[in-house]
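TICKET #2291
ISSUE: user wants both folds in one file
ATTACHMENT 1:
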Amino acid sequence: MAKTKRRGLVPLIIVGVLAILLVVAYFLIDSGVRAFAKDRAEVEISNRMPASVTGDITVTIGGTSVIAQFIAGSFDEIELTAPNLAVDGVPASVHVIAHDVSTNTAKAIGSLTATLDLDQDAVNQLVRASGTAPADAVMTLGDGTVAYTGTVKLFEFNVGYSATATASAAGDTLNFTPTEATVTSGVGDIDATPLVNLILQQAPIAVCVASYLPEGVEVSGVDISPERARVTLESSTLMLTAQSLTTLGSCAG
């Protein structure tokens, strides 16, 4: 009787072992598919970036199973990292997280959040390119603020000043609004208070970044530290098509 029971258990043991092997094989295959999908995504995204963008991009596909996600028609999370990207010669470290990415590239990504880390030189390149800052302005990154110098005309004299500004995001624009100012040269015995007030009442230095970004991607935040300016971007309309990725926004004027 015991022998009969043992014989009856053999098929169950075999089935159990086969089931385990199939699960292991599935995840091994899934891992291979994940690696293939990752490599393919890196190539496709690199090929579809605008000609003005250079640098290597690393792709990570999240979720438990690439196969299951592919069959479902949508990837839970795709992460892109490009620590040494350059856009029109402006260097940046880029990190992108996209959720609900359809396998149909004609459908918009569910949500996309990206951060760009710009060093001080990159910020100054953007500011100079904007044409809204004093021609001789040089920005220095600080703890939550930027400092810059410039000159203004007063009674035929060039008056030098230094200012401190806070940064904010507004759609496609980074605004640097002066909060403090000090006259550094050129006024002699003249009371500088009216000039300081004039500097503080000037319109913010507006740096439009739309022409650096795919259309539909907007600036949602900016954080300043001495090491970098971290710009946060968001979009819920971007698609992974050549047209969507290479159609850049535009700045008014």
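ATTACHMENT 2:
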Amino acid sequence: MNEARPRRACLTTRGLIIAATRRVKWAALFAIAPLLMQACSTSSPVTEAANPGRYSLHATAAGGSVAWARSHKAVMQSASDFCQQRGQMLSVVSESSKGVRALEEHETELTFECHSRF
């Protein structure tokens, strides 16, 4: 009986070490996942639209279940940065998206204006 207890404790300790190692691997994956997702979206340079004072942007993101969110975030961030460089704030005129299925390339088109801060 005395031999069974140390062996069982040893197996339990080994099992805990294996489980902890797996958790660390998953934690590392979840830590780098946002970086990998961010790298999957691209945004075009800001271009002037037909109407004076309006600008447009186009972004794409690789397929996946939330690629539409990455393309939306890319255009919103680029537009916000563009307006902030001018000391103004972003005002969205229109936004459209294409490709909402998984494993499709998702596209977002944004038309916006920059307005003075109040």
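RESOLUTION: both attachments delivered.
EXTRA DETAIL ON ATTACHMENT 2: Residues 48 and 55 are 4 Å apart (CA to CA).
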